[in-house]
Amino acid sequence: MPSRMRLEIGEQPEALRRTIGSLTPRIGELEKLAARTRQVLFIARGSSDNAAVYGRYLVESHTGRLATLAAPSIATTYRRRIDLDGVLAVAISQSGRTEEIVETLDWAKACGARTVAVTNGQGSPLAESADVALLTEAGEELAVPATKTYTTQLAALSVLGAGLGADVDLADLDRVPDEIERLIEATEASESLALIVEELSKVQGVVVSARGLAFGTALEVALKLKEACYLHAMGLSYADLLHGPIAVVDETTPALVLGVEGSPVLEGTAALAARVVGAGARAYGIGGGSELAGASSLALPGPGLPEWTAPLALVVPGQLLVEKLARRLGINPDVPRGLNKVTQTGA
C-alpha cells in the first residue's frame, strides 16, 4: 500500500493547477496593496520558512526589492516595536493557526506594514488577519511531512512575485503541473533512485546543498530527511559549505546537491559535486542537467523549467527519495515521531 505521503506527492499537479488558477487573477490586487511598499518581510516557520527563502530570492532577483526573513521572537517574546512603514509583511503557514505566526503578522500590521497571508487554511486566524489572503488549493493534507501544501505555497509566492513586478512570464508557471507529472514518472523510473536510497540507508548524516533560488529546496529536502528518516541532515548554501563545514563530508557523510539548468550558480553547484567526489565521498545530484549529473556519483532528473519556477518541481524528486528512504528504514513517513501537523512554539 502506498503511504499517505506518496499519495499526496502525486496530488501536487492538480493542487497546483487549482492554486495557480485561483491566484493569478489576483495579481492586480497585490499590485495595488504593494504600491506604497518598498521591501518585503517574510514571516514563517518550518517548511513554510523554506518556502519563504524561495520567496526572498525571487523578490530580490526579479523585482529589485529588498526582502528579509523575520525573527518572530522580536514580536512575541522581546515585544519590540519596529518601524515597518513601507514594508509588505508576508506570513506563510499551511494551517493558518500557528499562534506565533498570527501574532507576528498582527504585530507587523501594528508597526505600519501592509500584510499578506499565504495559507491553506480558509477562514483561519491568519487569513482573517491579513489585508490580502492568498489561499492555496492543496486540499486536506494528512501526512505530517508537508508536500502539496509546500509546493502550493511556492506557487502563491510566485504569484506574489508577479504582483510585485517580477520580470517573469506567467506562462512558465502554467507549465509547472505538467512538468511535475513528468518528473514523478521519470524519477520513479530512474535506476538511480533505488541505488541512492540503499546507500543513504547505511549512513547517519547527509549534507544537502544548493544556492540561489534552489537554496530553499535544499533546506526543505534536508528538513524532510530529518523529519521522516531521522537523518542528521544539514541544509547549506554551497557558498557556506565551502567556508568550513565541507570538512564533515566524507565516506560516511555524503552530499545531496541540487541544481537548475540555466542558473548562473549551476557551474559552482557542479564544481561542489566534483569536489565531494574527488575527496572520496558520494555526491547525489538532483536536477542541473548533464552538467550536475556528470559531476555526481548518482543523479536524479530535474525539471525543464526556467529558474524562477524550477523550485516548485525540483523538490519533487527529493520528496520521493525521502518517502522511499523512510520506508526502507522501516519508518512510517506519514506519522514521524514527535511531530504534529500544527506546531505551536509558545512564547
From TrEMBL:
Highest taxon in the source lineage: Bacteria
Keyword Repeat in annotation: yes
Keyword terms, alphabetized: Repeat
Domain annotation SIS: ranges: 30-171, 196-331
NAD is among the record's keywords: no
Pfam families, sorted: SIS (PF01380)
InterPro entries: GlmS/AgaS_SIS, GlmS/FrlB_SIS, SIS_dom, SIS_dom_sf
Entries under CDD domains matching the protein: SIS_GlmS_GlmD_1, SIS_GlmS_GlmD_2
Protein name: SIS domain-containing protein
Protein's organism: Actinocorallia aurantiaca
